[in-house]
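Ligand-bound model needed. adenosine-5'-triphosphate.
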Amino acid sequence: MKENDTAINDEAKTPVSFIEQFIIDDLRDGKNNGRIHTRFPPEPNGYLHIGHAKAICLDFGMAKKYGGKCNLRFDDTNPVREDVEYVDSIKEDIHWLGFDWEEREYYASDYFGKLFEFAVVLIKKGLAYVDDQSAETISEQKGTPTQPGAVSPFRNRATEENLDLFYRMNEGEFDEGSRVLRARIDMASPNMHMRDPIIYRILKIAHHRTGNKWNVYPMYDFAHGESDYFEGITHSLCTLEFEVHRPLYDWLVDHLKTDDYRPRQIEFNRLNLTYTMMSKRKLLELVKEGRVSGWDDPRMPTLCGLRRRGYTPESIRRFVDLIGYTKVEAINDVSLLEHAVREDLNLKAPRVFGVLNPLKITITNYPGEQTEQLEVINNPEDDSQGTRTVPFCNEVYIEQEDFMEEPPNKFFRLAPSREVRLKGAYIIKCDSFRKNEKGEVVELFCSYDPETRSGNEASNRKVKGTLHWVSARHAVDAEIRLYDRLFNHEDPAGQKDADYRDFLNPDSLKVLTGCKLEPSLAQAKPLEKFQFQRMGYFCADYDSKPGKPVFNRTVSLKDTWAKLNKEA
Ligand code: ATP
Ligand code: MG
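Prediction:
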C-alpha cells in the first residue's frame, strides 16, 4: 500500500457526490458486469492546473474507492498545439498528486487506425459524407438553435465517391481546409452538435507520435467517445460544457457498439477560482510573453507552480474535497485553497526563526564573547518533531516593523523603555536607538534580564509581546520572495470589455534580499517547508544553493487580503 492510499480515503469526509451515487447505483445494478473503469484525458498542450486536479481526484479517486481502474489517456488529436514536454509534465504532476495509472498510459493517437476504420464504416452505412465546402461555409449553414440548418449540396453523395474521396484526403491529395468528413445525422436537430458535425479534417502537419503517417485527423468529439469505448471505460466523467455534446457521444457509441457494454458520460462543474484564470491557452500566453517566469512560477495556478510555491498534494486534495462536485457552475474563493494549505502545513511544518526586514539590536549587558545554545520546540502541534537549538549572543535581528519610536497604545512590541520577550530566549528592554542620516532607526540598544531565560521560574514574568529574532553573528543571509495574487480582479478572464492582462497585479512579486535566517536553514533543500514564526509558511525554492537559501512564501498566517479589501 502506498503512502497516499489512506490519505485519500481519510479526506473523503464529505457526503457522496451525485456522480458517486451514479457509480454506486450502477455497481448495484451490475451494469457493465459490475466494473468501474474511468479515465483522465488531458490534451498535452499545456501544464496541468488546479482545475485539472479536480478532474484527476474524481477520475482516479472514484476508481480507487470502488475497486476499479483509471486510465491516463492523452487526447492528442490536434498535432498543431501538442508537445512531448507537456506529456512528461502531466505524468509528473499526476504522480505528485498521489495517483497512478499503472501500465495504462494510452494515447488517442494510438487509435487513429481504428478511428479511420470506424469512419469508413459510417460512410459505408450512409452515415458520413465528404463535404467539399469550407469550414466557414459549413458553419454559416448551421442555422440557429431555433432555425434548422441548410443541407449541404454534398450530403447525398454516393457512398463509393465518399469512400474514394476520404481515402484520397488521407493520402494527401487535397489541401488543408478543402474538404472535411461529416457525420450525417440531422440538420434540423434542436442540438446544434447533431447538425452533421465535422468528424475529420485535413491537417498536413507532423504529429508528435505518429509523424507524417496521417493527413486527416479526427475531431475531439469523434475520437473521445470512441476511445472510451476501445478502452472499456464505464464512466466518462467530464466538465459541464460537454453536456450538449452528449447526444453526439451516444450516437457515435451506438453505431460502434456490438453488445450491452457502453460507456456513460457524466458531467460536473468546472473549478473556477477567484483572482485566477484557468485556461491553458492564456496561461501559455503569460509564459510566452514573460509576464511570469515560467509554467512553474509560484504565482501560477498550475500544479507545478503550486508545488514550487509550497503547496502539498494533501492540501490540494483536501481543497477539492471541500468544494465537491455539482451540476452548477460556480466560482470558488481562492482563500479556501489557502485555508487548506495552512491547515496541512500547520501540522507538518517545523517552526523556525526568520527575519524578513532586519533591524539590529545590540544587547549591551550581554557578554560580547558569549554564545548560548537555546533549546526550542520544533512544532507545538506535533511532539514527535522534537526540539533543536538556536544560538543566542549579544547581537540579534528583529523585524523592523516590530519597533516603533512613538508607538500607539495597542502596540505590544518594542519601543523606547518598553519590554518584550525574545521567543525562547530572554526579556529585553529598549534603552536607546540610533538613526542614520535619513532619520531611519538602524540599531537598538537593549538590556536583557538574565533571570528571564525561557524555562526558568522567573521567566513567568509577564510582558505583552513576544518577538521572533535571529542571532546576528550566526544568521544565514537569504533571499525571500513574497507573492500576492497574480490578478487584482476576481474574474480576470471573464470581463467583456477588458483584457485579462489589464488586471495583472503589479505587486504580485516582491523580492527581499539580505533577510536573516537561523543557521539551521542554511542547507534547506528545494521544496522543504517551514513556518517562519509570525511571518507565514515558506518553502525553499529550486534556486537555493547550500549556504544561500532562497525561500518562497506559500501563504501568510492570516488572510490579510480579505481584510485589506474590506478596508478599501
Ligand atoms: P483548459 O480549458 O484549461 O485549456 P481543457 O479542458 O482544454 O482545459 P483538457 O486537457 O482537455 O483541458 O482537460 C482534461 C480534463 O480535465 C477534461 O476532462 C476536463 O474536463 C478537465 N478539466 C479541465 N479544466 C477543468 C476545470 N477547471 N475544472 C475541472 N475539470 C477540468
Ligand atoms: Mg479540452
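The radius of gyration is 31 Å.
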